[in-house]
Backbone:
């Protein structure tokens, strides 16, 4: 198994980024990853639908990489969905272009992990907050993987957290390219947050 | 007359043959000139005694060089350097003077003579070092800047030295008229006729005069000359300034180099900076080359072979003593690694002021005539060895530090190169303001002195000069530039400039402003990387405003505008190719006209089209799916 990965990164202030810029740079150096900086490509938000649809056709894994903005993606990723995931392409009786691709969000959140639960001030888990994307994946026939999250992101660069996260990110890209997903495990852990690493069947190919 | 022509021919021929050869072998131009001098002088004997006279004339190259250095150094930058100047430079001069004087004492010379020798060898060669630094693009490195500080202090130190030397006179070497004759340096100074207080006053007054000339008089003069639009007149004015100040300084016995340096600093902020540079630079280059040739030609091989051991020993001693002192200073001032080594290796020689001081000392009966030849040889040979030290720096020092510094820098955000903006009219001003406000350094040129004055009055730093002239581009720094924005009003000049930059500086990205479609194609054919039509976007804005005013929804108008831009962009290659095949005489062939009509049609369809179920449009915007589309949706989760 060897999948090609499309990384769509949206960060409106990448020059101030500590986490997402480093992850994007790492991914850009990997030859089976096509890394796209959406704000660089479409600074005026005029997204080229044909180009983007062709990119989707050419890849097997789609990653949305973004910092959490008001519990969702930065605006351009929403615009991207609005324009690119057209009827007849991504959904509808003829719209099967995305079927069976893997979809995953790689995001960074300012709050610490314990704030993203019913008792924390953010009240919902990240996975719960990203449900619109999960449902988008569902409607377009993509297989949704639990989000890859870095919490407490503003302080991550100060300690070891960012380094650990970068290591996990490199491993994740390898797994997405090579390893099969244990879907029975995925279904069991359907609504859980921290099962991403256990999902992959290591080193096995059918 | 014939004699002058023949000797001029000899000097030029030697330079034209040897310098390119030396450069090809990576030896640098200075070594090439020096070797050319040795070949036509001691080796072939083609030139003889007149080299001494020529050398005095050629020293004027150093004067011009200091003027150019001054132009690159704003008064504020000079003031910022004051600690370095006093610390680095002062220490270097004093310590080297003491050490070398000590060595001379050990040789059994009188203390007065020893001190004079110390002064002579404490100086380094401004000419060789600055020339080599700029050739190797090292002027703005840490080591280069520090070396320059020291050289500047040495040039200043020459003034008190010249004042001090007569006090060291020894009775037994009463001046001999023959040694005096060759030296034109002191005999015409006013100072000798004045009492000491008056001479000090005269020096002060002339320095003030230079500042006044540089600051207040030069600019109106140049503006007037620029308005006359005669190229050679500006060259004449530039030479007038430099030679005038040099003459004034010589009259009061101050180093002319220092005077012109000061004038250069005063003009560093002026709009004529680059124009002056491009005019003076060829003279400076030729004179300096001539100077290096005379140094080579002046090496007296007879004396050298008779005293081979002594001279070699002295050369080594001088260079090692200077090097060790420089190393100590570098360490004390925390100049480390590559920068420290450049500092040490570049300054460990004696310099052209050494010749001046030697001649002056002889005339003032400070030096016994018998050691003069030896001293001259030591100065010349250390100068000859300096280019070799630079080669050692390139081949040995730099590779050792390269890998380290590259690693350290890999994480930094890449440095942006500077941008040259040709033409500061309405168009160039906006471009420049955007760039400078974003922290990009720009060099602004305009060929109209009045326009430069106007924009300078609103604080846009710009320079008078015609960017379509290659030497002007050179002094504006095209070699280090990353990009040039061509916004000159002259249609034809813009195309020529594009062609020139493309051909000789292919690394520079060319952004050109076009007046109309045809001009745009011509610029593109000339090699512009990006062409923007000056009317396109403002007209597009006007069209959008009109539509909005007529009641179209602003967001829909925005989309139409984008569609228009998109269609234009998509058709541009095809139109350009059609334009290229058109004949010279008729500007637009019938092919082109047909394509243009096709483009008109494309605009119409693109702007009227809404987004339908089957996407036809090139510019698609959000549109709802068909009314009954939900009927066919199923839960994908369940289907798997």
Residues:
């Amino acid at each position: 198994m060897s999948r090609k990965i499309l990384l769509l990164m949206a960060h409106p202030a990448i020059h101030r980024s500590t986490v997402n810029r480093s992850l994007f740079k790492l991914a850009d150096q990997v030859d089976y990853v096509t890394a796209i900086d959406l704000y660089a490509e479409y600074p005026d938000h005029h997204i080229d639908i044909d180009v983007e649809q062709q990119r989707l056709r050419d890849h097997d894994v789609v990653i949305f990489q973004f910092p959490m903005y008001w519990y969702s993606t930065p605006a351009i990723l929403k615009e991207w969905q609005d324009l690119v995931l057209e009827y007849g392409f991504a959904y509808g009786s003829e719209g099967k272009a995305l079927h069976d691709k893997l979809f995953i969000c790689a995001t960074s959140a300012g709050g610490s992990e314990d704030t993203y639960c019913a008792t924390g001030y953010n009240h919902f888990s990240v996975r719960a907050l990203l449900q619109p994307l999960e449902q988008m994946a569902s409607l377009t026939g993509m297989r949704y993987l639990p989000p890859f999250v870095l919490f407490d992101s503003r302080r991550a660069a100060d300690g070891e957290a960012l380094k650990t996260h970068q290591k996990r990110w490199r491993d994740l890209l390898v797994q997405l390219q090579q390893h099969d997903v244990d879907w029975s495990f995925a279904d069991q852990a359907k609504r859980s947050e921290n099962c991403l690493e256990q999902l992959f069947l290591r080193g096995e190919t059918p | 007359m014939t004699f002058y022509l023949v000797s001029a021919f000899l000097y030029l021929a030697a330079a034209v043959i040897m310098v390119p050869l030396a450069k090809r072998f990576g030896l640098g131009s200075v070594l090439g000139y020096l070797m050319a001098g040795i070949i036509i002088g001691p080796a072939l004997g083609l030139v003889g005694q007149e080299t001494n006279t020529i050398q005095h004339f050629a020293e004027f190259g150093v004067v011009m060089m200091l003027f150019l250095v001054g132009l690159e150094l704003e008064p504020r930058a000079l003031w910022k350097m004051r600690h370095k100047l006093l610390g680095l430079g002062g220490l270097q001069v004093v310590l080297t003077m003491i050490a070398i004087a000590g060595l001379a004492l050990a040789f059994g010379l009188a203390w007065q003579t020893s001190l004079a020798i110390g002064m002579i060898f404490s100086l380094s060669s401004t000419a060789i070092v600055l020339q080599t630094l700029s050739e190797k693009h090292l002027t703005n490195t840490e080591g280069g800047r520090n070396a320059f500080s020291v050289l500047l202090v040495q040039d200043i130190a020459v003034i008190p030295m010249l004042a001090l030397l007569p006090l060291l006179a020894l009775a037994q070497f009463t001046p001999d008229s023959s040694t005096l004759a060759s030296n034109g340096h002191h005999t015409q100074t006013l100072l000798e006729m004045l009492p000491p207080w008056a001479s000090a006053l005269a020096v002060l007054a002339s320095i003030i005069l230079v500042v006044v000339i540089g600051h207040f008089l030069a600019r109106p003069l140049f503006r007037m000359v620029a308005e006359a639009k005669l190229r050679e007149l500006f060259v004449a004015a530039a030479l007038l300034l430099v030679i005038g100040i040099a003459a004034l300084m010589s009259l009061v016995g101050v180093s002319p180099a220092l005077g012109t340096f000061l004038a250069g600093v005063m003009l560093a902020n002026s709009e004529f900076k680059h124009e002056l540079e491009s005019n003076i630079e060829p003279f400076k280059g030729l004179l300096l080359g001539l100077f290096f040739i005379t140094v080579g030609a002046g090496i007296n091989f007879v004396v050298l072979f008779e005293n081979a051991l002594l001279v070699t020993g002295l050369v080594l001693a001088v260079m090692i003593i200077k090097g060790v002192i420089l190393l100590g200073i570098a360490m004390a001032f925390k100049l480390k690694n590559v920068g420290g080594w450049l500092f040490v290796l570049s300054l460990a020689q004696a310099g052209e002021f050494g010749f001046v001081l030697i001649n002056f000392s002889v005339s003032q009966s400070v030096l016994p005539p018998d050691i003069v030849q030896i001293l001259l040889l030591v100065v010349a040979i250390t100068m000859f060895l300096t280019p070799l030290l630079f080669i050692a720096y390139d081949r040995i020092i730099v590779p050792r530090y390269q890998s380290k510094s590259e690693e350290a820098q890999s994480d930094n955000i890449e440095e942006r190169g500077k941008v040259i903006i040709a033409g500061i009219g309405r168009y160039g001003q906006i471009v420049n303001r955007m760039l400078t406000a974003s922290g990009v350094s720009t060099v602004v040129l305009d060929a109209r002195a009045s326009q430069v004055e106007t924009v300078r009055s609103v604080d846009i730093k710009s320079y008078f000069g015609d960017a379509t002239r290659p030497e002007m581009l050179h002094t504006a720094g095209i070699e280090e530039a990353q990009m040039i924005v061509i916004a000159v009003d002259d249609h034809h000049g813009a195309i020529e400039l594009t062609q020139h930059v493309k051909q000789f500086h292919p690394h520079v990205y060319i952004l050109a402003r076009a007046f109309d479609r045809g001009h745009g194609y011509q610029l593109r054919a000339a090699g512009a990387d990006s062409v923007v039509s000056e009317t396109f976007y403002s007209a597009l804005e006007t069209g959008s405003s009109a539509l909005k005013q007529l009641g179209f929804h602003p967001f829909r108008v925005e989309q139409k505008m984008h569609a228009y831009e998109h269609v234009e962009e998509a058709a541009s290659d095809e139109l350009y190719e059609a334009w290229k095949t058109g004949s010279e005489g008729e500007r637009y062939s019938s092919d082109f006209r047909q394509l243009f009509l096709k483009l008109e049609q494309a605009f119409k369809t693109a702007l009227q089209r809404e987004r339908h179920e089957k996407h036809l449009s090139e510019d698609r915007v959000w549109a709802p799916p068909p009314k009954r589309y939900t009927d066919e949706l199923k839960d994908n989760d369940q289907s798997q």
Summary: The first strand of chain A starts at residue 5 and ends at 9. The beta strands of chain A are 5-9, 33-37, 61-67, 102-108, 143-144, 148-150, 180-181, 200-201. DSSP finds nine helices and eight strands in chain A.
